[in-house]
Amino acid sequence: MEVQPALALPEGLEITGIEMIDEALTITAISTQRSPCCPLCGSPAARVHSRYTRRLADLPCGGHQVRLLVLVRKCFCEVPTCARKIFAERIIPFVAPWARVTARLFQIVQAIGLATGGMLGARLAEQLGIRTSWMTILRWIMALPTVPIEQVSQLGVDDFAIRRGRKYGTILVDMESHQVIDVLPDRSAETVAAWMQAHPEIDLVSRDRGTDYATAATQGAPQATQVADRFHLAKNLTEIAEVVLARIRPEIRKAVQPEVSSLQQGDDGNRADWKPKTEADEQQAGLARQAERCDRYQQMRQWYEQGLPTRDIAHRLGVTRRTVQNWIKKGIPYAKPRQKRKSCFDPYADAAIALWQNGALSSLQIWQALQTQGFKGSYNTVHRFIETLPEYIKRRVGNGGRSLVLPEHPLQHFQAREAVWLFVRDPHDLDETEQSTLQAIREASPTAETLYQLVQEFMLLLRQRKGERLDAWLENVAASQISELSRMVRSIERDKAAVVAGFTLPQNNGLVEGKVNKLKLIKRMMYGRAAFPLLRQRVLHAL
Ligand SMILES: [Zn+2]
């Protein structure tokens, strides 16, 4: 059997032996290159100085590690002007000078590293019969040369979180080749502008609607057309429409079911009726809990004295046997009155409730508003608080034991968060129920009708890319007197050229956002702890 072709050793290497040593397939070979050339002057050598063995790791074979032992020559360079007197012959490109692995193993390990990262890469490599360490994998990934950036005429820019909420980076995508061409360590206008200045050939910049990249593009690529992302605009509009719908909720409810609103007396979760628990409420609840505990203890005592086994007592009370035993041993348990912990949020609770009642829908919006009032706490604090508000209302309605039989109506479950999608979607995509709900909302409130017209008009501009009709839309918004929309109008006016381009040109940031998602995946595979240089390398060379 011819072994040489199976192992695919290059010409100039001749196999002299194959054997298993320490579970590694050990292949001895000899270099048969005709006269080796001096690496310095390139002239072929005539005289051999000595021979030595190079030990090289190669691709695994049949699940075994492969070790290559290649006998190579050292030769004299006899060119009198050459500085090198003795040189070792090289086996390029099969093995790089000084390397201890073959080039093909090097490339495979790099590919494994790019796909999986250091730790996982090392484990995967071991399964494949390649012995390496995560350090080696990372070193080899970092050794990948940066591909020089060629001409880029359409540039897509977006940011991504290096550490969420603290540190952000910028991803740059060639919108024509769909390739990530660079990753920058921050998202400041200066950094991005400097990058753009090095590329005067850019004639289009697709970006989000933030001011940083707008400034960067204006400074760094003044020659380029800026395209603002139209889907962000659609998202803005959806959020605003939701707020408007929440505001006009009472109007909608009154218009369709006057009798219901009087019956429910605000217990349907109407925001304006909710009050936070006072200290007296808390105290009362605490006393009630304590009284219940006492009662349960008395009952337990009674059963115990009647000789009921602890197991049965525990079962009847719905507690563990350990609890029953503890109660018996210690007598009535002292219950500390529950105390509300003081938190940095307390002074802002009223403001948060007010915002919530006024229709601010997401805890994020409320958190942002509180920050302007000096609140220093985290988003989670606010989020947890807001989450409990509707819960509380639900509980109160449940405890009241009022279960009214109400007439069915398409709007009885009206919720701005759901209704807004009826406004945004293409009316042809709505089913019958959705259409009748939408119809009912529009008939219930003139504001809702106006809002619906504006939202649909906007979505049509977006779908058909009619940038030239944006002005007419802005005028209609101004005439509508829906105050929530005026902020959006102002922000569009500030960035109008780019917005119109966004509505007219086919480019959009969806492509860039896809790349950001891929970057996030890579980041998560590194458990979110990757240092920026490695993340950049893995994104730029991603398979
Ligand atoms: Zn030489």
Structure report:
This protein is α/β, with parallel strands linked by helices. The protein has 6 domains: 3-101, no CATH class; 106-142; 154-228 and 508-540, Nucleotidyltransferase, domain 5 (2-Layer Sandwich); 232-257 and 411-504; 258-277 and 346-396, no CATH class; 286-330. Helices cover 51% and strands 15% of the residues. It has 23 helices and 10 strands. The strands form 2 sheets. Strands 1, 2, 3, 4 and 5 form a 5-stranded mixed sheet that branches. The protein has a 5-stranded mixed sheet with strand order 8-7-6-9-10, with helices on both faces. Strand 7 (167-174) and strand 8 form a beta hairpin. The radius of gyration is 36 Å and the shape is flat. Residues 258-269 and 393-407 have low confidence and may be disordered. The site of zinc ion has 8 residues, from loops.
- Global mean pLDDT: 81
Q: Would you tell me the structural class of the helices and strands? A: alpha/beta
Radius of gyration: 36 Å
Helix share bin: 40-55%
Associated small molecules: zinc ion
- Beta-strand content estimate: 5-15%
Number of domains: 6
Q: Could you give the count of β-strands?
A: 10
The tally of helices reads: 23
Gross morphology is: flat
Cα separation of the termini? 37 Å
Note the main sheet.
5 strands, mixed
